[in-house]
Specification:
Chain lengths: 241, 271
């Protein structure tokens, strides 16, 4: 079994002009777990995820994914779900399947096809013709049908109805390959805490807590959601997410 | 990996422009038939209708050529902008490939579509002419072949013209990509900023060109050119000039690509 952390950051800083988005983050995440990257909007979750998958470079510090700096290799072992629909409108579902099969050796086409069909999506459907919710489900299907080492899911349940949330979380847990790590960034803690093994709290670009869900329950006597609401009080008042 | 990227770029591009190529060829054939009919029928009631159809098809043919030119340009801009700088960029930039391959595949697709557009326009003109006036068309073609066989250097010059034209298109494509990459550095008014960048780059290129020409004249280019023609002959001198032009274009393409890839690596600003 590979003991190298799936990713590690040391003294990671990201600045956009004069604004500091990540402020000296150091952390190490192991394999075979579902990790919640939790923090309010603007706390640095998306920036950290973008750096991990090589979309943007850090200003200072170091990042390693499976022991390598972000690049062509790390992109081949990371499966990324952004909080946007990234498929071209002209594509049919079939084209997307072809594309993922062409570019990712770890893509399980048969499973993806079956899942699309179970969603009621025909392979000949154009992306343009799908509803927003169905597009999101198809996108998550493609991402989860890779046998990647690291899944980075940026706000996968934001803006979807409760039924869709349930479907998405089931899709994530059902397709969670052993020894892979899934990082889910969200501020909707209550919805996902049941599937999490570990949590990372991020606030103003700093990691303020990294611990297992079990230890939070044992040591703090609180659920992750309760702890989150305590940690992220807004101006003395509780910050309602 | 570049060939896979190219496959998707072409698939996307050909979808938009392919229908206009087909329309152009069909219009050319129709215009050719109308011109032939008008040239052979006698004066009658039908003549006015055929003349009208002939004129109309010729106008549509011209408009379609303009539309293809505009669509090709829009496609070059849109495929880069939407594909790499907007939401699609979240997929493209996380594929296991390099930024330079992403840019190269877009450039290749753009140049292939331009070349195919020129070929389709040429073929459509041939179809129109061969239908409307076969004898004259075949005569012109014979004339071209005769000239080429009479002076084999025409082939070399023709080949060099094609290479230089492709290189010139690549310079413009690369310049557009660089301008768009500069434009995306800001969160707002990206297109406006890209246009300003394109304008400034053109001003800089013109300034460099002027400085180069002035320097060459100061170094005695006209007399060098005349002495070169005397010693090397006009063909060899022309070859050297063509080579110099090609080198300048390749240098421009390399510089633009370095800037574009550098921005995509260090300053990508997806929204």
């Amino acid at each position: 079994m590979n003991e190298t952390p799936i990713f590690e950051c040391s003294e990671l800083i990201k600045k956009f002009g004069s604004k500091t988005a990540l402020d000296g983050i150091s952390l190490e995440v192991g394999r075979g777990k579902i990790v919640g990257l939790l923090g309010p909007n603007g706390s640095g979750k998306t920036t950290l995820i973008k750096i991990l998958n090589g979309l943007i470079p850090q200003t200072k510090g170091q990042v390693f994914i499976d022991g390598e700096k972000p690049g062509v290799y790390t992109r081949s072992v990371v499966s990324y779900l952004p909080d946007k629909n990234y498929f071209a409108d002209w594509m049919k579902v079939q084209d997307i399947l072809d594309m993922f099969e062409d570019f990712y050796e770890d893509f399980d086409r048969d499973r993806a096809e079956n899942m699309c069909i179970s969603l009621g999506v025909s392979l000949k459907d154009r992306i343009k013709a799908l509803s927003k919710g169905t597009k999101e489900k198809v996108q998550l299907t493609m991402v989860m049908c890779r046998k990647a080492q690291l899944y980075l899911l940026d706000e996968p349940i934001a803006g979807v109805d409760p039924a869709a949330r349930e479907f998405i979380l089931k899709l994530i847990t059902d397709n969670f390959a052993q020894n892979s790590t899934i990082v889910i960034s969200t501020h909707l803690v209550a919805d996902i805490e049941n599937i999490l093994d570990e949590v990372i709290f991020i606030k103003n670009g700093k990691i303020i807590r990294q611990s297992s869900v079990e230890s939070i329950k044992a040591n703090e006597g609180k659920t992750v959601d309760e702890l989150f609401r305590t940690e992220f009080k807004w101006g003395g008042e509780r910050y309602d997410f | 990996m570049t060939s896979k990227l190219l496959k998707y770029e072409l698939k996307s591009g050909l979808r938009s422009v392919g229908i206009f190529w087909l329309a152009l060829v069909l219009t050319a054939a129709f215009a050719g038939i109308m011109a032939r009919v008008v040239s052979i029928i006698d004066a009658s009631k039908a003549e006015l209708l055929f003349s009208l159809l002939n004129s109309l098809s010729s106008v549509i043919y011209g408009v379609l050529i303009a539309v293809i030119a505009v669509i090709t340009l829009v496609l070059i801009i849109q495929r880069f902008y939407k594909g790499l700088l907007q939401d699609e960029g979240y997929l493209m930039h996380t594929l296991p490939t390099t930024k330079s391959k992403l840019v190269a595949s877009k450039q290749m697709a753009a140049i292939i579509i331009i070349i195919l557009s020129i070929l389709v326009i040429t073929i459509s003109a041939f179809i129109m002419n061969i239908i409307s006036d076969p004898a004259s068309c075949l005569g012109s073609i014979k004339g071209i072949f005769k000239a080429v066989f009479h002076e084999p250097l025409f082939l070399l010059y023709g080949f060099e013209f094609v290479v230089l034209t492709i290189a010139s298109f690549l310079v413009v494509i690369s310049e557009i990509y660089t301008s768009l990459s500069i434009g995306q550095l800001k969160d707002n008014h990206r297109i406006l900023l890209s246009l300003i960048a394109f304008f400034i780059i053109n001003v800089i290129m013109s300034a460099i060109g002027t400085i180069l020409v002035v320097q060459l004249f100061r170094m005695g280019l006209p007399s060098d050119l005349f002495s070169a023609i005397e010693t090397l002959g006009k063909n060899l001198t022309a070859q050297l000039i063509i080579l110099a032009a090609l080198i300048i274009e390749v240098v421009a393409i390399v510089i633009f690509n370095l800037i574009t890839v550098g921005i995509l690596k260090k300053k990508l600003n997806l929204q």
